Amino acid sequence: MFFSFSTIRPIFNWTAIIFTLIFGIHYWLNHKSYVFDEKSIAALSRKYVVGPDSNISTAYAKVLEGLRAKYTGHILPDQDLQWIFMNAGGWMGSMCLLHASLTEYVLFFGTAVDTTGHSGRYWANISDTILTGTFYQWQEGSLTRTVYKPGDTVFHGMGEATAVSWTAGTWMVEYGRGFIPSTLFFALADSFTSTTDFLTVFYIIKVYIKAMFLEVMFYIGDFRQLIKDSL
Ligand SMILES: *[C@@H]1O[C@H](CO)[C@@H](O)[C@H](O)[C@H]1NC(C)=O
Ligand SMILES: *[C@@H]1O[C@H](CO)[C@@H](O)[C@H](O)[C@H]1NC(C)=O
């Protein structure tokens, strides 16, 4: 007898804790209410689809204006918006985070060069609406790729993995819904194991904290208003 019950018990306890957490988060994700939804983000983005020779900065500025009008208090202010390189799954892109909480995020994403790699498997549903450029998706188990053009929305379901490829000058609006901290592991993995670009790691963590802080302030403001109204 190599294992006595006292050596197994901590393993048993930890397994129970992890399972409870996973079920708890899963239940919460399926029952909580959300600020954004995939259809509204896609519909708003589609209005600003641009041709390859147009100025994407101008299009993004309009999407940003639309989001700020519709989701007041949930979009980071201009001084916190920053284009940050992102290396993950072998590809390289750039993102500009607009909103993030524990369960949702909205960001601009794209690349100025051709890039290809693994999509990552996430504990989140992710949808991307293309403003300009081309996005190729190769589904697991398939022998062909799907081509997405400006105005299309690409859906990446929870737990799925695909091969992804963007042509130079592809820019899109991305919405993620799920357990967002879990997606950070993938977002940061290449920075640790390949590029060792820790300044980028710092930028990503910094902007995520700022976005979370904005959400906390929003709900504190809401709560104070509620107290005021009921006095
Ligand atoms: C696009 O517009 C921005 C301002 O909105 C400007 O700073 C930038 O130079 C323009 N880019 C091109 C390629 O015209
Ligand atoms: C993710 O997408 C699937 C399929 O559309 C849906 O059934 C599920 O509820 C979504 N999960 C969340 C957390 O929105």
UniProtKB/TrEMBL annotation:
Keyword Signal among UniProt keywords: no
Keyword vocabulary terms for this entry: Endoplasmic reticulum, Membrane, Transmembrane, Transmembrane helix
Pfam family, one: ERG2_Sigma1R
Annotated compartments: Endoplasmic reticulum membrane; Nucleus inner membrane; Nucleus outer membrane
GO cellular component terms given for this protein: endoplasmic reticulum membrane; nuclear inner membrane; nuclear outer membrane
Domain of life of the source: Eukaryota
Membrane-spanning ranges: 12-29
Family from the record: Belongs to the ERG2 family.
Protein name: Sigma non-opioid intracellular receptor 1
Lineage: Eukaryota, Metazoa, Spiralia, Lophotrochozoa, Mollusca
